[in-house]
Amino acid sequence: MARRAPSGRAPAVAPAPSRRLAGRVLVLFTLSLSCSYLCYSLLCCCGSPAAPRARCPPARAAAKKLLQQPRACGRAPPAPPAGSAPGPARPGTKRLPRAIVVGVKKGGTRAVLEFIRVHPEVRALGTEPHFFDRNYHRGLEWYRSLMPRTLDSQITVEKTPSYFVTKEAPRRIFNMSRDTKLIVVVRNPVTRAISDYTQTLSKKPDIPTFEGLTFRNRSLGLVDTSWNAIRIGMYAVHLQSWLQYFPLSQIHFVSGEKLITDPAGEMGKVQDFLGIKRVITDKHFYFNKTKGFPCLKKSESSGLPRCLGKSKGRTHVQIDPEVIEQLRDFYRPYNIKFYETVGQDFRWE
């Protein structure tokens, strides 16, 4: 006889395999969806606490945006450094100079450079690179790297007065560009020599007297042309080296004396030579009685006048008038030859 099940209890029924499988799939799908959402939220919408949040776009839009622009959504772009301007920080290109002030020392070259750089179409290197006399071995790219950046409409200018008396300088500049324009600031060679000596004396107080350095034999009037202060003033001799490579039309001579008495007139000629508009005029200058030299009037930007440094316009040492007269006699034939060559009388006699 069959035994009956206890009252109130239903017989145990084992779950079907298909139902168990369906339950596991549902759990895995739910977990996967949750993990995906969590990862997306962390990557897309979680920035640093200090960074401003942006509303995340829908998944499809976000994917499309990520393909077009590779940056994390929701994070603000980093702020530029204080004081920086958008775009290129320094426009223009570093170019080799189209004009060089090649001489002469103590002639007024610094004044010419400071005056011409006021012109908006001129950019000038403030220091003397000494490339064509001392640093030629460094190469043109090194030389170019020193230059200021210029626009296509601007001219790059540099000055190194020692070029004029450097034998290799004309050839080296010609090899760089045969179209280079050359500016030579000249001054009465006697006054220039005394100025040169005064500058050296301020740095080396123990050097011999001017008279002692000037003459090999003063009683015979034999001038020592090996002394650099004397040799520089023999302009006609040095000029011959330059005329072997450059025509006279590419060399402009500035009068150091007129640069003091008529700076606007001399700078007008310089502007004409460079082929730029006459922007620098009388209104840019005033005469500084203390220095005995013209200065640039104050600019609107700085509100201050621009004068040359303390080493410019210093009082010359006193020289025996007899020595000065002997030097005038020595330089006279060189001066006359120079006047004839350049077609200009500087009236140093």
Helical residue percent?
25-40%
Could you give the count of β-strands?
11
Beginning-to-end CA distance, first to last residue: 157 Å
What would you report as the Rg, rounded to the nearest angstrom? 40 Å
Q: Which percent range describes the beta-strand content?
A: 5-15%
Question: What would you say this structure looks like, in words?
Answer:
The structure is a single chain. With 349 residues, the protein is of the alpha/beta class. The protein has 12 helices and 11 strands. It has a 5-stranded parallel sheet. A two-stranded antiparallel sheet has the order 1-4. Strands 7-8 form a two-stranded antiparallel sheet. Strand 7 and strand 8 (222-223) form a beta hairpin. Helix 9 (235-243) packs parallel to helix 12. The protein is elongated, with a radius of gyration of 40 Å. It starts with 16 loop residues before the first helix and ends in a 7-residue tail after the last helix. Mean pLDDT is 83; it is low at 1-15, 44-77 and 79-86.
